Amino acid sequence: MPRPHRRLASTCIGTVTAGLLATGAALAAPEKEQPKGSDIAMGAFLDSGQTGVARIPQLSRWLGGKEIRVGHTYLPGDRWARIENPDFLEAWAQWRRARPDRLFVLNVPMQQRNEDHVPDREVARLIRAGAEGEFDHHFEKLAHRLVELGVPDTVIVLGWEMNGATYTHRCAPDPEGWKEYWNRIVNTMRSVPGQEFKFDFAPNRGSDAIGWTKCYPGDDVVDIVGMDSYDQAPGKTFDEMVSQPYGLQQHVDFAKAHGKEISYPEWGLFRHGDNPVYVQRMLKWIEQHKPLYHTITDYCPHGVWQCKQNPRSAKAFRAALAPERPDPVIPTPVVPTPVIPTPVIPTPVIPTPVMPTPSIPTPVMPTPSIPTPEIPVPSPVIPSPQIPVPVPSPETPSTSPSPSPVPEPAPVPVPEPVPVPVPSPAVPSPEVPVPAPVPVPVSPEPVEPSPQVPAPESPSPEPVPDPVPSPAVPSPQTPEDPSPSPSPVPVPEPSPVLPPVPVPVPVVPKPEPTDPPANTTEWCVPINFGEWLSKLVGKQSVCVKIDWGKDSGFWPW
Hints:
This protein is α/β, with parallel strands linked by helices. It has eleven helices and twelve strands. The chain has helices at 50-62, 80-84, 89-97, 120-131, 136-148, 175-190, 238-243, 248-257, 276-289, 311-321, 531-537; strands spanning 41-45, 70-74, 103-108, 155-158, 198-201, 224-226, 229-230, 261-263, 267-268, 293-297, 520-527, 540-547. The strands form three sheets. It has an eight-stranded parallel beta sheet, covered by helices on one side. Strands 7-9 form a two-stranded parallel ribbon. It has a two-stranded antiparallel ribbon with strand order 11-12. It is elongated, with a radius of gyration of 70 Å. 33% of the residues are buried.
């Protein structure tokens, strides 16, 4: 690192150490390709003592809330007492213990009077003394102190920039002795119980006084291969800084070959002034190669936050590391919609007929089938029991005017009349008395009976009154036939049941009293229509009246 006059860690006023940068990937393309809020542990050297600790949250706010995970400071190199137990270590240890993901990086000098421009001959003598163990106890005390403070995992950058010509702990005067001395210090500190230290071998970029690979002490005593890289020669451009001997590319390759992590404990501006391109390219490189940590030296002329003379570089630094923030979401004001209760109007329940479904069969109510019985229509006329209409006797034709005929119903096909068996004359009907026979001198012509008006009333199950005999029209007798039977008389089919219509009954003059027929006999035969139909029409009988006169020759008594 370049020397601003005398660099005493005890008087590090205005000194700012490596700023933890979190993003690195060859920032060849400017701001459009810059990483946003890289998660690589980053920090900055802000001051050696408690002031440096207090400035960490301020840097975080300047970076838009970027988390600073690395605290970086230097031990004073003026005398051994301040190397063994500096008074500011407790503040840094407290900061480190606050979060488990933080790193405490501590630069430890290998000699006292580290910046006193000690000549090479004296440096070589001190290196040999250290390799023989003369200074072991100083490092043992430091190790105990760090473990006691609760920071046993401190990253120790031991003898930093050893390939340069500035510090008393430089390597060039005796490289082999220097490597032995490094091993002696590491083994001494690792012997302290509870330690978990990581040792960072961090040369300056380029060859400087000696190629840094010639000072590498061995894989068993090195945990991290770091590099300090400022914007200065060798190399005018960033590409030259990458490709030069002992440059950035060789550093990455060497660490990979030895199986070590890399770091950038110090980097920043220097010889080329305010150089935002360098800042962008360095952050891009860091993002690309993913070091364990990186810190920028943030004091003038190297820094970007505390040093106001590098405004363009500061802008590039902030643009690369500030975490991306989404545009503020302006909430749309929610206008509550008034809830108007809807009046509940009860819906009338209309019973819906249950339709049959495949799963639940609907019971089928049997429709009573009314069988139409075949009613044998006998030859005799079936009198209407409700409205008896007097019919004049065939023997005494009536000379009075007959009532107005009632229109006959439309003819209906009548089934073939079934002959009704005529009971034997020897068995008279017990219901009708037999009148005395009256001689009939002449057989009268058949007279059509007056049309009877069928009763429109529906048959009821009430008992039907005994039929009133009405005179039947006798058929002409044949003397030779010993057992005459009446010829069938067509009977009109009953009309369909209609509501009762009042029918005017004509006044018929009573006929002259005549003697009853000499030998008139009437037989009534009950008709059985079946149980069901009998309930509808009631009990009916068919009456047959046969007139046998005395002179007919058939009168049995």
